[in-house]
Design goal:
mainly beta; Immunoglobulin-like; 2 domains; 6-stranded mixed sheet; 4-stranded antiparallel sheet; rod-shaped; binds 2-acetamido-2-deoxy-beta-D-glucopyranose
Length: 249
């Protein structure tokens, strides 16, 4: 008796199953599974949309039709072995419920197609960067074109967590070790998706085009003294030397 009740409840639960959900991405391709028993040869495959059963792709006997309505023109293919329907070049309007009928008879199956857009890579901007005794203050902002994303930062090598503060996409940190590169990677994520961008704080700041050689100086204060020395102080000294060749130089 109790077994029967369990069985009835089980069957009810099966009957009440929501349609399968399949996720597709804008402009990409998705395959909707028919769920056909692979050991049997399908004689009829009928994919339809809307409550008035508008056929979009069918195979009856030996005749396959996949150009039944304009909205899917050139974007469908039907696997006559598995009964699976492939939709290419997905559009937002493709988001709806699809139903498949098969012969040999199988329970009609509904599939809800959800169309999503891939996450865009986040952007990292420098909020501030200043040298202080014994290190460097750095503030970075990570932003995303996508809505409702979570931000996470990964710092390599890790900085002292007691001197690092995060707030949504922003990160503020004090770096004491300025002799190695520090890489800041910002990831944005949404359910089932995760993309990231990286910002590297270089240990040496060599202008492009010059030979890359490590400079044992604080990376934050490097730029100005070197430019000053190369661009102004040295030429001035050389000029003075040339002009006053007789004086001690
Ligand atoms: C399916 O079709 C193949 C070839 O057309 C045949 O050999 C096979 O016996 C069929 N299977 C069933 C279960 O009807
Ligand atoms: C079925 O419904 C769709 C949308 O509701 C409509 O565009 C289409 O004309 C209908 N087809 C028939 C045959 O009534
Ligand atoms: C059709 O589906 C079968 C079974 O899943 C698979 O082996 C075959 O490669 C598919 N054919 C095409 C053209 O995708
Ligand atoms: C996203 O991916 C990065 C790198 O693979 C990982 O560090 C981060 O924890 C991931 N975030 C989420 C929320 O899955």
């Amino acid at each position: 008796m109790s077994l029967l009740i369990v069985l009835v409840l089980f069957l009810q639960a099966v009957g009440a199953l929501p349609p399968d959900e399949v996720i597709g991405y804008l402009g990409e391709t998705v395959t909707l599974p028919s769920g056909a028993d692979p050991s049997r040869n399908l004689t009829t495959i009928e994919w339809s949309i809307f409550s008035n059963t508008t056929w979009i792709a069918t195979r009856r006997g030996k005749v396959t039709k996949i150009e039944r309505i304009p909205r899917f023109k050139g974007r469908l293919s039907l696997n006559i072995t598995s009964g699976d329907l492939t939709i290419r070049n997905l559009r937002k309007e493709d988001e709806m419920k699809y139903t498949v009928n098969l012969d040999p008879k199988q329970e009609a199956k509904g599939i809800r197609l959800i169309i999503k857009q891939h996450l865009q890579k986040p952007t990292i901007e420098t909020l501030f960067r200043s040298a202080k005794e014994g290190g460097c203050w750095l503030g970075l902002r990570c932003s995303s074109q996508d809505e409702d994303v979570d931000f996470s930062w990964k710092i390599e090598p890790p900085t002292d967590p007691r001197q690092t503060q995060r707030e949504r996409g922003d990160i503020f940190t004090f770096l004491t070790n300025t002799t190695t590169d520090v890489q800041f990677t910002c990831s944005t994520s949404r359910t089932k998706e995760n993309v990231s961008s990286t910002f590297t704080l270089k240990s040496d700041k060599v202008p492009t085009g010059e030979a890359r050689k490590p400079l044992p100086r604080n990376r934050c204060t490097l730029g100005f003294p070197i430019c000053f020395a190369l661009g102004f102080a040295i030429p001035v000294v050389l000029y003075m030397c040339r002009e006053n060749i007789s004086t001690s130089c």
